[in-house]
Design a protein that fits this description.
Number of strands: 13
Helix content: 25-40%
Strand order of the largest sheet: 5-6-7-3-8-9
Shape: globular
Largest sheet: 6 strands, mixed
Distance between the termini: 25 Å
CATH architecture of the largest domain: 3-Layer(aba) Sandwich
Radius of gyration: 20 Å
CATH class of the largest domain: Alpha Beta
Strand content: 25-35%
Structural class: alpha/beta
Length: about 290
């Protein structure tokens, strides 16, 4: 699917990519991690054909620089920073759908699944949307097409827990037929979504490791928490995750998307002194199973 051979990119005298060679198959979900300045974004821009570079880049056997239009028709891309577009949302949906041969209705269907109602924002300029609305729309544009490769840069950063869970479910529908690259500076944000980790530092690949692929992206964790005492601060946090108060602020129950387990446990770690008991059981709800087996 993706082949990089001795890819090098320099800006003036600063070498940002230094001899990167990688092969990524269609069945792989890759976490591209590293600190700021490691070369992740530059590598992504080379894959999108935005930069010239030394070495060889091929996606599906084609050069993304020489055959850019054809290659981009098969790529769904979610950038880390939303572009400063003044185009109305409805026009943006129609334009992006026309460039990749998909239907605007497919993009709007994903928007609705993520909790973003198209008719309410059709006339609004993209730049005036909230950060969360922009992120949902960019994800809908990427997922509302038939693509062979998804490239996502911090894709769930501005999503609330419920939208993140739906986002993971949408990825689960595509995981067997779409290669995925998820770029992040924090491995714990994407670890449960991937089956391969590539770490970059100073423009080089310093780690390339296969990881256990045992988490069902469609699964949820049924969680029950007991606190030693009721506290408003943890109550607000649990309500934001969709938890219900079962007993005077001390017993809470809710669901967490299985790929979000590390993020949820990291949130709870701030209140570890209040936790008296915690149980988490993984399930795939029956109504969601119908979606993934269609």
């Amino acid at each position: 699917m993706i082949e990089l051979r001795n890819v090098t990119k320099a800006f003036k005298r600063n070498r940002v990519l230094d001899g990167v060679s990688l092969t990524i198959g269609r069945d792989e979900r890759v976490a591209l991690v590293g600190s700021n300045g490691a070369g992740k974004t530059t590598l992504i821009r080379c894959l999108l054909g935005e930069y010239t570079c030394a070495g060889e880049v091929r996606i599906g056997g084609l050069s993304p620089r020489l055959h850019r239009s054809e290659v981009l028709r098969h790529i769904g891309f979610v950038p880390q920073l939303p572009p400063p577009l003044k185009m109305p949302v409805g026009q943006l949906i129609r334009f992006t759908a026309s460039t990749c041969g998909s239907a605007p209705q497919d993009i709007e269907a994903v928007m609705q699944q993520l909790g973003l109602e198209p008719r309410h924002i059709h006339q609004q300029p993209f730049a005036r949307l909230s950060g969360g609305q922009k992120q949902k729309l960019l994800i809908a544009i990427a997922l509302g097409r038939n693509c062979d490769l998804l490239i996502m840069d911090e894709p769930a950063a501005n999503l609330d827990p419920e939208a993140r869970r739906i986002f993971f479910e949408l990825l689960a529908e595509r995981q067997d037929r779409t290669a995925m690259i998820l770029s992040s500076h924090r491995l714990d944000e994407v670890a449960a979504l991937v089956n391969r980790v590539i770490e970059m530092d100073c423009g080089k690949v310093v780690l390339d490791d296969r990881v256990a692929d045992r988490i069902d992206l469609a699964a949820v964790l049924n969680c029950r928490l007991t606190l030693s005492r009721a506290e408003p601060v943890i109550a607000r946090t649990l309500k934001a995750w969709g938890f219900r108060d079962l007993g005077e602020g001390r017993v809470w129950q809710g669901e967490v998307a299985a790929p979000d387990r590390l993020r949820f446990l990291g949130t709870l770690s701030r209140y570890v002194g209040l936790l008296a008991d915690i149980s988490m059981q993984e399930t795939v709800p029956r109504e969601r199973l119908k979606v993934y087996k269609r």
